[in-house]
Hints:
alpha/beta, 9 helices, 8 strands, CAT-like_dom_sf, two-stranded antiparallel sheet, about 20% strand
Amino acid sequence: xxxxxxxxxxxxxxxxxxxxxxxxxxxxxxxxxxxxxxxxxxxxxxxxxxxxxxxxxxxxxxxxxxxxxxxxxxxxxxxxxxxxxxxxxxxxxxxxxxxxxxxxxxxxxxxxxxxxxxxxxxxxxxxxxxxxxxxxxxxxxxxxxxxxxxxxxxxxxxxxxxxxxxxxxxxxxxxxxxxxxxxxxxxxxxxxxxxxxxxxxxxxxxxxxxxxxxxxxxxxxxxxxxxxxxxxxxxxxxxxxxxxxxxxxxxxxxxxxxxxxxxxxxxxxxxxxxxxxxxxxxxxxxxxxx
Length: 290
């Protein structure tokens, strides 16, 4: 679905809603960016969509053992964050602040450094008990991780979820590099065998179980999405690149995005329990003041 809204200031917004079971962020931006080219009169698509979903069919017989072993933790949560009242805010980091976090993370990637920083701030804001297990669930694009890799232009959902786990005391008391290394190690575990195991799990699991697994993480957890690699700047309908691209809503407390800004900085839209948000915002900028 798409909705265009014009404002009296001569600005406008384009809202796009897609079904995540059928398409992920990479495919959605592929569609939008080629839509823009057609609007500008460029009919020939440089990367036509690849629509054959059989390249992600399950194995015969399905074997989800690796997903259960390192990815799916059905008994990890003592409660659920899905129904908690929450507030959403967007926190901005300048290029210098991002560089400072990357140094503290021992030069891990921008996403890993910021996610580790958010993880630490959330543990403090939520006042988690030192021995409380906390997880960051991560969404990983597997297009280039499969063997063979998915064809260029694959249009569909090609993401896997995995988690990085530690106690609250470890995340709070150790340097940011500890959490960043945890995030990196979790992402590195998403290779062909793990992705195939996730596909097999989806084949075997019922719809209700899959839906509960996705949103039923605890009030000690986060779900982090990287939008750093999405080519928002190519979404030009003839008026230039968009001034701003953001997610329209969050479904649950603990949902975090990391998004590139036009000025070289990064924005962090985050949803957190209303009672914890002010503490989180205060801690987020401690030691990062310009």
